[in-house]
Amino acid sequence: MAFSRSANTTTSTTPPSGISNIPVLLSLPKFLDSTHINRLENILCYIQDHPGPNGLSVLIYRDTKNDDVFVLTGDWYGNALELNTDDSIIAKAAKDFINNKLVIFLDLMRTIKIEQAQYYFSLKKDDIVLEEVRTAINKLAGPGFIRDIFSTIIQTPAIRKIEPLNANNIEAMIKNDGSFEGDLIIKPSRFRLFDENQEEHIPLYVELLR
């Protein structure tokens, strides 16, 4: 296996190994603000703790033809990490992932037949939490899939509730009441784009920041 731990993530360049056509890191898609919450009315949603503003991004690409694995690490904005010189919290989390969790993720990817995916982790105390899984430029894994498939190998987001949105719970969320207090991210149970025709590929995820 060959591992590439850092690369230019802003343009499609040849990675250090010399193999072309390796994917590059993509920034975490933008979330919609609270003014869009009514778009989720009558849709079954996962109501989760908000992941925060930044974290670790890991792209894993399995070149099954050559039996190679390439790993790119960065932040949520597509900025690559240079693990040999970077001592930031995110870089330390990346090193820990590569040393202790990469093989487990590779085994799972082989089992569920995923050749490439980009994972977005938030940093919580001494551990990382898998917040999003990007399987294509215009697609994130649904929250139920993340919980059901990945919770056996990594911590996944705390889920406040799973329920259809209606006038009552939308009002409670906006008012920051009860079980809806604090920063939240609200996701449809089935992944949807805000607008199928937009080039930005914004998911129909609404964030509530207090």
Q: So what's the CATH class? A: Alpha Beta
Mean pLDDT over the residues: 89
Structural domain count? 1
Number of separate helices: 4
Order of the strands making up the biggest sheet: 3-2-4-5-6
In CATH, the architecture is 2-Layer Sandwich
Q: Give a short account of the largest sheet.
A: 5 strands, antiparallel
Protein architecture, described:
By secondary structure, the protein is α+β, with helices and mostly antiparallel strands. It has a single domain, classed as D-amino Acid Aminotransferase, Chain A, domain 1 (2-Layer Sandwich). The protein contains 4 helices and 9 strands. The strands form 2 sheets. The protein has a 5-stranded antiparallel sheet. A 4-stranded antiparallel sheet has the order 7-1-8-9, with no helix packed on it. The longest helix has 12 residues. The chain is globular. The relative contact order is 0.22. The N terminus is likely disordered.
Main traits of this protein?
210 residues; four-stranded antiparallel sheet; 9 strands; globular
Write the layout of secondary structure elements.
Blueprint: E1 44-49, E2 56-63, E3 68-75, H1 89-100, H2 102-111, E4 116-124, E5 127-136, E6 139-140, H3 143-150, E7 159-164, H4 167-175, E8 184-188, E9 206-208
Antiparallel strand pairs: 1-7, 1-8, 2-3, 2-4, 4-5, 5-6, 8-9
How is this structure best summarized?
With 210 residues, the protein is α+β, with helices and mostly antiparallel strands.
